Amino acid sequence: MEQERMTTRQMAILLFCGLLAPLLRVIPEETGPLAGEGGWAAPLLALPVFLLALWALGRTFRRLPRTAGIPQMYRLAYGAGLGGLLTAATALWLAVMGAFNLRLYGESFVSSIYTDTNIWLFLVVMMAVVCLVSCRGFATVCRMGRLFFYVLVITVGLVILLGVREVRLYHLWPVWLQGWDGLLLSAGPVLSVLGFSVPILYCKGRTSEHGQGEKILAAWFSLLCLLLSAVGAVIIGLFGWQTAIRLQTPFFSMAKEVTLGEITERIEAIVAAVWVFSDLAMLAAQVCAIGEYGKELWRGGSRRWLICGAGVVVILGAAWMDSATFELQELWKGLQGWNAVICYGLPLSACLLLRVRRRI
Amino acid sequence: MTGRKKGGLLLILALGLYLLLSGSSSDLLPWARDITQVRLMRTMALDVGEEDLIQVTLSGGLQQQNEDPDTIPLLLSQQGLTVFGSVQALQTESDGYVEMGHLSDCVIGEVLAREGIEGLADFLERDFSMRLGTRLFLLAGDTGENALRMTSSKTTALTDRLESISQNRTYGGKDWPFTVRAYLAETEDNGVALLPVLELADNPDYDPESQGEQPEREIHLTGLAYLTDQKLTGTLTGEESRGASLLSGWDQLDRFQVELPNGTVAGIRLVLSQCRWEPEFDETGRLTAVTARLEVQGELNELTGWADLTDTTVLEALEQGFLSQVAGLAQAALDRSQGDGADFLHIRRQLVYQCPAHSTRLLAHWEDWFPTVELRAMAEGRVERSYDVDLPMEEGA
């Protein structure tokens, strides 16, 4: 019942909201050292590769039953045993990434606004809200994403609009100044974060029955990448890439700097408050997806209990990552390869295997 | 809602209320500061203290006087190994919490500027409460602490004077270009950054008996200086500073006096200045010359004497005089930059941006090419009338 009330557009909007925060953690922090002045163009370079991966997955899922998601595809491609193991690995990875995102969200508050406050408060409150919403079902989370979308886009749009007059074009051009190889490699970190969306998008099969799924996803992810490039361009254009990569949170630093005379000074507090919506959207999507994978692994299990259980695991994981933001950033760099394997490698290899064995 | 759910919800609510109201969990919940105990700081001065420590002096500006308008702005001073250490030490000196989030200006004493300001730049960049839009100034021949103490009175604070300087000296709508953000970006580009220079002067209205009614000294913007690798290495003359400002396109209050052939002197105000850099390369791809082409616009504000400005030859003479002065100032700045081997105008960055096809060679050979490349300044533009000075006041105004 619930699946019929979810559309590809709703799912794309939810992921649009959820990906904003983690993507702006890598732009320009990770794209800058690779591409220098061209760090802002990384989302545009990553987009074609990502859309190609989505197209390949979409083609495969179109040949599978409409309700078949990644767990069913793994079972079909690798058999029940290995397929179940890979499904469990994907669910576990979503929990690890959820814990990572939750920790970074908590750290952003503790290190900037509420210094000397225990991080547990932010972890518990956020996860309580996530579980409360997620227990109502994936469709409810998607509807929540639609509300967040307007708030987030207006906020980001305002920051871009106010910041663009301060941009110095010589900080942005030529994009190949640090070398073409660096420019192309800068798409990697963006692709890795965009990969978060793959196990979520296909956790429970196709969401649209009109055969327009890939086009809708392509449109929304293109919009996301365009917006991120614009934000990246304003950040780098404002600070220069060398300064921007040293800032702890370049996007919030940019929000601190943008003003319109005396009218809109100090808007960073509003931006930081609104940014919670992005973290909430991603965590809710990840927890819901864990619930779906869990249901496939444990057929008799209640989805609500699975979601609450996933919430507890994510909180404990976030608390266990007891480290400063610097170390978390290093940890993420180490995890990027694994993220690519689980989010792109496993589903795409399953697609390939199914095609080679002519099972679809 | 079932009974079990209701029970669970009530338990959560009770726990939440306990945490919020009991006051026994201060380590878990964020704690708020009493706003009446917060001291908002507006201006920071940095100097070399005793035994090479860094001395930080903070001023609260006039809004701190709300409780007692008959006092001069709050001043706090401390020394430490680092800027952050000094600021933390100030917390113990103040009767409230010293809040730096509203700091808008930073004045650096000359001695410290010569020793280097890496620590300041790093502190302003890392500390989340600080703003990268904070304006930076150098104080020539004195300490920043003296600037804060001697320019404060019951009715004025250094912050207000610096704000006035920054607002009046830039083109309409443009922001003050010498901020921490710009400083960091310029230093990252080639290690050289320009900063404005202030000087203290005696206040003719000062009366020692007035008990703080008037400040002891006044402060003025005198020109620009450049820092290489975060150390003050050169101060530009008045002409060079004006030339650098023209090439950067920021100083609105520059004015020119042009003498016409009949002895009449025209007062012209600069209202617009835009610079375009034009490189010339030889057949081997080596940079041989760079022309700074200035597009300027002046407004005639005064004529001491008489001139028929409807006469094309007179107007041309006026414009030529104006443009040659503009080009002369710009040339002085270019010559100083080349002579000192300090690209404080960031010509390389401009050329890389404008000629991306040559960017790799420019970056690779700039250090070799810069000392020998021919730098030229050219000015184009015209003089407009602000109002017709020949007409009687009631018609021309």
Identify the notable features of this structure and list them briefly.
heterodimer; A: 360 residues; mainly alpha; 16 helices; 0% strand; globular; B: 397 residues; alpha/beta; 8-stranded mixed sheet; 4-stranded mixed sheet; 12 helices; 29% strand; disordered C terminus
Radius of gyration of chain A: 20 Å
Output the number of helix runs of chain A.
16
Structural class of chain B: alpha/beta
Cα gyration radius of chain B (Å): 27 Å
* Percent in helix of chain B: 25-40%
Strand order of the largest sheet of chain B: 4-3-2-6-7-8-9-10
- Strands of chain B, total number: 14
Helix/strand structural class of chain A: mainly alpha
Strand content of chain B: 25-35%
Largest chain-chain contact? A-B, 29 and 24 residues
Give the SSE string of chain A. Answer: HHHHHHHHHHHHHHHH
Question: Helices and strands in order, then pairings?
Answer:
The complex is a heterodimer of chains A (360) and B (397).
Chain A (H helix, E strand, L loop, with lengths): L7 H19 L4 H5 L6 H22 L6 H9 L1 H33 L6 H16 L3 H26 L16 H6 L1 H8 L2 H5 L11 H27 L1 H6 L3 H8 L10 H30 L5 H18 L4 H32 L4
Chain B lengths: L2 H20 L15 E3 L2 E6 L5 E6 L15 E6 L2 H11 L3 E3 L5 E5 H6 L2 H9 L8 E5 L4 H7 L7 H11 L11 H11 L1 E11 L14 E12 L2 E5 L2 H11 L6 E5 L5 E17 L5 E18 L7 H29 L6 H8 L4 H11 L4 E12 L7 H4 L1
Parallel strand pairs in B: 1-5, 2-6, 6-7, 7-8, 13-14
Antiparallel strand pairs in B: 2-3, 3-4, 8-9, 9-10, 11-12, 12-13
Helix pairs in contact in B: 8-9, 10-11
Structure in words:
The complex is a heterodimer of chains A (360) and B (397). Helices cover 75% and strands 0% of the residues of chain A. Chain A has 360 residues and is an all-alpha fold. Chain A starts with 7 loop residues before the first helix and ends with a helix. By secondary structure, chain B is α/β, with parallel strands linked by helices. Helices cover 35% and strands 29% of the residues of chain B. Chain B contains twelve helices and 14 strands. In chain B, helix 10 packs antiparallel against helix 11 (359-369). The model of chain B is unreliable at 391-397 (pLDDT under 50). Chain A binds chain B through residues 111-112, 114, 116-118, 120-121, 166, 168-171, 173-174, 176-177, 238-240, 242-243, 246-248, 253, 256-257, 259, and chain B through 27-31, 125-126, 128, 131-133, 175, 181, 184-185, 188-189, 349-350, 352-353, 356, 359, 363.
